[in-house]
Write a structure and sequence with these properties.
It contains 15 helices and 4 strands. With 319 residues, the chain is of the alpha+beta class. Among the domains are: 133-248, no CATH class; 254-319, Leucine-rich Repeat Variant (Alpha Horseshoe). A 4-stranded antiparallel sheet has the order 1-4-3-2. Helix 1 (3-14) packs parallel to helix 3 and helix 9 packs parallel to helix 11 (235-245). The protein is elongated and about 95 Å long. The protein starts with a helix and ends with a helix.
Amino acid sequence: MKCEMAKDNVILAYYGELPDELAGPLEQHLMTCEECRHELETIQSMEAPLAAMPMVEPTPNLLAQSRMRLDDALDSIPPHGLLTRFRTNFFAWMGHLRSAPALATLLVGVGFIGGNFLNRYEVANQPRPRTGPTYTNETHAVIGNVTGIDRTPDSELVQVHYNKIVPETMEGSLDSQEIRELLLKGAMAPTDNVRAESVSMLAGECKAGHECPSRDDGKGVRNALLVALRYDKDPGVRMKALEGLEPYVAQDQKVRDAILDSLASDPDAKVRMATVSLLEPVQHDSSVRKVLRNASTQDENPYIRTVSYNALQGSDSIQ
């Protein structure tokens, strides 16, 4: 293996992209070549300083404003006139006529170099089994916002469409950490259907007994459902959040308080009715009884007043 190819393969090896059939020749070359070994050590020494640098994510508003300014700048460029385009094309055509022999030689050289690079690309990108999510465009960039969610019927496969610098799609299992992170971003998306799909899938994971821990940093699936229940303007999204929080009513005080707030102040009657049934396991709690008592006398919906009153009677019989 020559040094030129070895230096290219050193980069692929550092990022774990080097094919197995090239790993052995590269290792043998590094044992005998001081220059290429120094190249690898230089790349490895960059890892610690880069890892220490903080990664600042631009806000979706900043990305949207930047794209709008770029579109405005492109629209403001005046089009070339007919005379200008004719003069440019004429001189370009004359140049092609005068450099035809040289152009043919150049094309042969470009074809040879292109074939060499194509062969390297095919070797470096031979199909390998993947265990994680698959991407349509693996660019290491900041995720701006989630634009759509598609789920394969009767399966755990989910496609989450999101914006980095360019639109991108990730496909993977709902149990995948990458998919969950995107669904958490989707739960905060400005688009109603994206928020609804994200909250519905996250709630389904919690209701199915999958891992939905409560985190002190305010992140995580359960925290996202609490935020959706308290602040989302779509009653359908709030109903889905209630379904996902149901398993934690008895054990998580934050979940119980959020459900009590919904019973007391949610503007949608269907959401308030759903909270009464969720509070059944904790009807003996004094704070729950207080909110149920208020709902049984003050709620504008007669059905909610009735079910709240019946729930109070049931808790009395339990005591």
